[in-house]
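Researcher: Let's try something more involved. This one mixes different molecule types, so please make sure each is placed in the same coordinate frame as the others.
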Amino acid sequence: MLSSKAPRPAATRLLAAGAVLTLGALSLTACGGSSSSSSSSGGSTAKIGVSLIVKTTSNPYFVAMEDGAKKAAQGGNIDLKLAAGKSDGDEDTQIQAIENAISSGDKGILITPNGPAVVDAIKKARDAGLYVIALDTPPDPASAVDITFATDNFAAGKQIGQWTAAQLDGKKATIALVDLFSDKVVSVDYNRDQGFLTGLGIDTADKTKNGDEAKTGKYTGGKGGDYEIVGNQASQGAEDGGRTAMETLLSKNPNINVVYTINEPAAAGAYEALKAAGKDKGVLVVSIDGGCTGVNNVKSGIIGATAQQYPVKMAQLGVQAIQDLATSGKKPTVSAGLDFFNTGSALVTDKAVAGLQSIDTTAASQICWGK
Amino acid sequence: MTQQQTAGPPSAGHADLAEEFLDRQTPLSRIRNLLHRYPALSPAIVLLIAVVVFGILNERFLRVENLSLITQQVAVVGTLAIAQTLIILTAGIDLSVGAVMILSSMVIAQLAVSNGVPGPLALVAGLAVGLAAGALNGFLVTRFRLPPFIVTLGTLNIFVALTLLYSGGSTVRGSAMPGVLTWLGSTFPIGPVRISTGVVMMLLLYVVVAFILGKTAWGRHVYAVGDDKEAARLAGIPVSRVLMSVYLAAGAVLAVGAWIQIGRTNAASPNAGVDLNLDSITAVVIGGTSLFGGRGSIWGSLLGALIVGVFRNGLSLAGLDVLYQTLAVGVLIIVAVSIDQWIRKVKS
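Model: All components are placed in one shared frame. Result:
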C-alpha cells in the first residue's frame, strides 16, 4: 500500500474498491431503511406532500407566494416543499424540482412555469398521478396542467383603463404604453395592455397583439374624447427599463398625459423619467401588481391607480385545492367564461371615481398581494 | 508529538514503521499522503457518507427509481464536467462550457426542425459548432497567450449572444424533432430500474476520456503541461499543440452534452444552462481536481457531480428549502478546496 509510485492503475483499483463499498453500503442501508425510517421520519408518511415551485426567489412577488403557501400548510396535514429556479427563465432547476416531487411521493405540485421546456416534466408528474396547478403564469399550452390559478390580467387592465377614462373627464389622451417585452410575446403582456385600452374605450384590433391599434381616434370610456398613442416600449418589468422606455416615448412626444405601465417597478422608473423632464404633475400613471412598494407609490401620488393581484391567495388556494383533492377527491373548477380560476384583482386608488369599485391605499397596504 | 494525534486508527500499529520513513509521518500526514496519491478518494468518501445520511433521513432516497433519477439529473453537468476537467488539468478554466453546449443544442434543433436537415446531419453540425467554439478558445489561449479565464469570459458572452440571435429566444419542442435528437432522453429497463440512455452516454464518455488520460502519451502530456508548462516544454512536449487539442476535445464533449441536454428536457431551450459553467467547475473542484492544474482524476469529477446531485435531491426529499441546497453546495466547494490546499502541502 505504501508503494512509492505507479499512480494511475492503483488509483483506478482503489476507486473500484470504493465504488463497490458504496454499492455495498447502499444495499445495506436500503434493506435496513424500511424498518428504521418509519421511526426516524416520524409521522410524515400520512401527510399530504405538496411542492411549490416558483420562478425565482429573487423576486418578492414569489417570496410572497411562498409565504402564502407556508401559512396555508400550517393548519392542515400538509408536508410543503419549496423550490425555485435560480433565475427567471431557469427551466432546468424547475425540471429537477418536479422530478424530486414525483420521487418524494407528493400528491400535487404548484408551479409558476419558467418556460415551455418544463411542460414535458409536468406531463411526467401527471402521468405519475400528481395533480399539477399552475400559479400566476399558465404554461404553454395551458392544457399541460390540470388547472391554472391566476389573475385575469385582461380584467385587471380594464379596471385601470376605466379609471383613466373617468379621470380624463373628456380631455384629449396622449398615451404612452410601457410594456413588458418587445422581443417575445407573453400573454400577461398583451392581456394587460389590451385590457387597459379596452377599459379606456379604444378598439384594440387583435386582442393578442400589442401596438396594432389605430394611432389616433376617439376613446369612448368616461365622457369620451380624442386620443393619440405615442408608442409601445419594452421595460422588462424593471425600474431601469421603465425609465429608458419612458424617456424614449417622451422624446417622441413631450405632451404625454397618460402612462400605462406593465407593473409597479416599471411605473416607478417611468415616473423618474417624467420627473427628470419636469412632467411629473398632471400625468396619469397607471399600473398593475399591488405589492406593498407599489401601493406606497400610489399613496405618495407617483402612481394614480394600480390593479392589485393576489399571489398569496393563489398559493393558499393551491395548497387548499390539493388538500381537498387528497381528502375528499374534490377537484377545483375554472371560473365562468375563462379557461382558468380567476383569483381576482382590485382597483387601488385614493382618487375613487363614481361607478367604479375601488379600495384606498390604506386598505390595500394591509392586504398587499393578498397576505 | 506523535502520541498527541488522535486521528487515523488504522495507522496506530505502524507507528514505528512510519518513523523509519519520515520524522513527520503522523497519522494525519499519512492520510494526506494517501489523498495526495488518490485524488478521487476524498470525494468517494464524501459521496458514501452523503448517501448513507440521506438514506437514513428519508426512506424514499434509496429507492432505485430515485437513485436512477439522480443520475439523470447529473447527466448534463457530469458531461460538461468532463470538458471542464480536461481544461482545469492544464491549469486553465472554461467559463463558456454551458454557453457552447446551449449554442450547439440550438443549432442541432433549429437545423433539424426549421431547415429540415436530417437528424444525424444536424448532430454533426452540432459537433462542428462545439469544435469551432473549442478552436476559438484554444486559439486565443495559445496564440495570444491570454489567460483562459479572460478568454472564456469573453467567449461566454459571445456564445450567449449568438444563441439568442440565432434562436430568437424561442424554444424548440422535442415533439417536432427527429427521433434521433431526443433518443438520449429515452430509458430502458434493467431489472426493476429504468436507465436513461443519456446517462449511459455520459458514462461511456468518462470511460473513453479516462482511458485516454491514463493510458496514452497525450494524456500524460496534458498532466505535464498542467503541472509545469516550462518543464513540459523543456521535456520536448509541444505545449501549444497539447493545449489546442485539449480545447478541441472539450468542444467535442460539449457537443455530446448538447445532445444529452436535448434528450433530457425533450426540448432545446436558449434559456437553459444559465449556471452550468459554474456547476461544472463545482463538480470538478469537489471531485478533487486541483485548480492549479496537473493533479486530479476524471472519475473524481463524476463523483463531484454525483455529490452535488445527491445533496440537491437528498435535501429536497428531506423537505429543505432550495436556498439551503445552494448553501450546502457552497460549503462543499470551500471544504473541497481547503482539502486540496492541505494536500498540496505534501509536496515539499
